[in-house]
């Protein structure tokens, strides 16, 4: 293919991806209220627990707020639904220029990235969001003492609750990409399993720091719920890097046996 033909092919794939995304946005608008119901369930469950069974109420500050909230949800939903088709279009453009080994690696990394992100988002949705929101909503209370009694009540806006939930899901999804990132770095030879293992005691502290940053509430439970899987994923990453190194040494040993050259690296770490 000439350079102009490559540009023409790229334009075709990008055009197809854009059409797929726009169609998915249109379809998502039909289900957008179901999206809103789904994504706010942890917030509603936390509301009932923190406010003694009161009915959850989400408000909007302007007449256009519900429309823009639904538009945001429709676009995120469309991106989620259309992403496999968009990836397929981009893959059809990239794949012809890759070797078989590179194709296999790209598919493995892409699949692992998707699985880890979805797993992290589901963890944030099912485990993390409810206790974090329960803690924050528990600040609502009544002060009955004296003649000038008053109450602190939540006035949660639609945009705020959707923004909070999306931030939590995206944040936990990205945090769960740790094994993929470290695995790729190990495959490239940037890091070694022994170095990662020596850093393990500091990784525990760092996991709690990151957990405290990713969880919006200062309660210890949410931080522990976030930091524990992060530390576990770090140790899984060590195992993955070690397996990659072992496979690499095995291939080099076979090649050295066939050629008579000393190709197996020594452990200098």
Throw out a few tags for this protein.
75% helix, 269 residues, mainly alpha, two-stranded parallel ribbon, 2 domains, two-stranded antiparallel ribbon, single chain
Largest sheet: 2 strands, parallel
Number of helices: 10
Question: What is the overall shape?
Answer: flat
Strand content: under 5%
Q: Based on helices, strands and strand pairing, what is the structural class? A: mainly alpha
Q: State the helicity in percent bands.
A: over 70%
List low-confidence stretches: none
Q: What distance lies between the first and last C-alpha atoms, to the nearest angstrom?
A: 45 Å
Mean pLDDT: 86
Spatial sequence of strands, sheet with the most strands: 1-4
Counting DSSP E segments of at least 2 residues, the number of strands comes to 4
What value does the Rg take, in angstroms? Answer: 25 Å
Question: How many domains make up the 3D coordinates?
Answer: 2
Order of helix and strand elements from N to C terminus:
HHHEHHEEEHHHHH
């Amino acid at each position: 293919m000439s350079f102009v033909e490559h540009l023409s092919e790229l334009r075709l794939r990008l055009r197809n991806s854009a059409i797929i995304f726009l169609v998915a946005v249109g379809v998502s608008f039909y289900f957008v209220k179901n999206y809103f119901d789904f994504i706010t369930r942890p917030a509603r469950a936390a509301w009932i627990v923190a406010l003694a069974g009161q009915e959850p109420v989400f408000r909007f500050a302007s007449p256009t707020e519900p429309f823009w909230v639904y538009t945001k949800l429709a676009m995120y939903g469309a991106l989620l639904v259309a992403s496999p088709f968009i990836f397929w279009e981009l893959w059809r453009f990239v794949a012809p220029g890759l070797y078989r080994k590179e194709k296999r690696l790209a598919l493995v990394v892409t699949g692992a990235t998707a699985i880890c992100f979805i797993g992290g988002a589901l963890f944030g949705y099912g485990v993390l969001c409810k206790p974090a929101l329960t803690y924050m909503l528990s600040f609502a209370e009544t002060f009955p003492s004296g003649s000038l009694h008053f109450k602190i009540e939540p006035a949660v806006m639609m945009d705020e609750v959707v923004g909070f939930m999306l931030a939590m899901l995206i944040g936990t999804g990205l945090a769960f990409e740790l094994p993929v990132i470290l695995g790729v770095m190990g495959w490239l030879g940037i890091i070694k399993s022994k170095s990662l293992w020596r850093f393990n005691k500091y990784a525990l502290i760092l996991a709690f720091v990151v957990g405290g940053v990713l969880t919006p509430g200062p309660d210890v439970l949410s931080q522990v719920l976030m930091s524990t899987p992060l530390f576990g994923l770090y140790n899984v990453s060590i195992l993955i890097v070690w397996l990659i190194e072992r496979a690499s040494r095995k291939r080099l040993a076979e090649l050295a046996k066939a050629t008579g050259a000393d190709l197996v690296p020594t452990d200098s770490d």
